[in-house]
Design brief:
With 134 residues, the protein is an alpha/beta fold. It is 29% helix and 24% strand. It starts with a strand and ends in a 5-residue tail after the last strand.
Length: 134
């Protein structure tokens, strides 16, 4: 089973220690246990003033709409803010500690069964913390 992932990164294509909704860009990949395919890069178009308000429902809605348009099922970041309670209804939220997307994809592929299981749970799913798994 292939899922679409959105990786929250900065201009240098690296994860940062900031909330998912504060990322500069989202890199969209289609990933399965054995394959990965880069789909596109999306600029985070939430309004600048929204980026400074934590747990803002409008900001969460904006992020959800942006990524749902791309048929994303999984979102990946080092850190999620309080809006995780809103976005986890729409996506599987995965926390990782890596700096590079390529390193994260390896861990994701090793844990695809867990991610697929969370996706199938629907709105009642919880996030996945893969920060300490290598």
């Amino acid at each position: 089973m292939n899922l679409k992932f959105a990786f929250a990164v900065n201009k240098e294509k690296q994860f940062e220690n900031k909330h998912f909704g504060d990322a500069d860009y989202y890199y969209i990949y289609e990933i399965s246990k054995s394959e990965k395919k880069f789909v596109k890069k999306i600029k985070n178009t939430t309004e600048e003033n929204d980026k400074n308000i934590h747990a803002d429902p409008k900001k969460a809605k904006s992020i959800v709409e942006l990524l749902k348009f791309e048929n994303t099922q999984v979102v990946v970041s080092k850190i999620f803010g309080p809006n995780i309670k809103r976005i986890k209804k729409h996506f599987v939220c995965v926390m990782l500690n890596d700096k590079q997307i390529s390193d994260s994809i390896i861990i994701i592929q090793k844990n695809m069964d867990i991610i697929i299981d969370k996706w199938k749970k629907g709105e009642n799913r919880n996030y996945i913390n893969l920060k300490y798994i290598k």
